[in-house]
Amino acid sequence: MASSSIFTPRLTPAPSKSKSLVSFFSLLPTSRPVKYKRDFPVAKVASIPYEPINQEYLEKEFSGHGVTFEGIGESCVAKMEVENGSTASLMMPSGLITSYKALMWHQGTVELLHTSVLEAEDEDDAIIQGGISLPLTFATDDGKDSWSPTTWSLHNVRGSPTRSIKIEMISNDSEGKIRLKHIVTLEQDILSSELIVSNSTSSPLQMFGGVMSHLTVSSPDAIYALGLEGSNFFDKRPIDTEFVITPPRYGDTSQPGYGQVYGKMTLQALASTLGALDQNNSDVAQYRSNDSESEDEEEGEEDDSYKQLTDEMCRIYTCAPRVFTILDRGKRNSVTVGRDGFEELYLMSPGSVHEFYSRYAYVLVGQTAMLKPITIAPGDEWKGGLYIHNPNL
């Protein structure tokens, strides 16, 4: 089951786990069974179970700024809405931003984020993926200690529907020496996700990961990335985190229809492709294991200023503009994506061998520190994040 809406009373987020990585890619699993939930290896600092969120307390304490709260099981959804009708929703305590509906030129609102809901083994729960997430890991120079934020608590709500609304969340390590503040801001034409990291330890802190945003599209075949010409990149395999969506057969060139566009496929090839993608293939895990050793890390330079994202791809641009545009010709709209603080741009497309408007109708744009970590000196504070600008008003 897949859906772009998460507002049903049965849904709760997948349980979070602490994660660790000294080198972001070197510690990714080389083999795994076919699962929708993806995790990094477990960190030394264990997760602290969280108490169910008190919706009535949040409404009493933080209402009056254009934010409403809806309880969903042991979680809570905070919905922000500005006066022109644009809205954004995020879940606590996971901190996952699940929706950004922006006002368009035709005076209707359009969902710009891609979120998928899957039934968990427990029928009363669900696994929620996509949206905007923060897969982050912090490590000391020697790599002996590492910590990842798994739960967020609401710290403050500011602003008003007439201008902008800010929701501040915080997450601390068990010793209180690493403090993260995540600020989600909704304006009439912008949604931003800002991260503030404070290092109170006595040694430098290395930060890996970044901010990952799933942008919903009609089909990757109709998507173009504008403004990346001349940018240096490395081809990489997709990252695995609990909130990132990745086709289970990504990179399998033997699958029917690989690298083809639906419009160029015969009906027989199309039926074969859909059948192959829908079934649970027992050999996927073995394929992942064999392919991981031959991971393509080819370095290159982008030669297309109007790059179509039809083909399956995953790249980390090490030298790219801080602002570029994603154009969807199928939906006749575009978004401008910008970054601050992070030096790397992560761009992943699942390709166009999937059904239109399906679970894989998205492109993943990340502002990251995956090839080279960001170092935060003792006592220092670092700021960074991403914003999505809607130019379609």
From TrEMBL:
InterPro entries: Gal_mutarotase_sf_dom, GH-type_carb-bd. GO terms for cellular component: cytoplasm. Residues 292-304 have a biased composition (Acidic residues). Residues 281-306 are annotated as: Disordered. One of its GO terms (molecular function) is glucose-6-phosphate 1-epimerase activity. One of its GO terms (biological process) is carbohydrate metabolic process. PANTHER family: APOSPORY-ASSOCIATED PROTEIN C-RELATED, PROTEIN NDH-DEPENDENT CYCLIC ELECTRON FLOW 5. This is NDH-dependent cyclic electron flow 5. It comes from Geranium incanum. The lineage of its organism: Eukaryota, Viridiplantae, Streptophyta, Embryophyta, Tracheophyta.
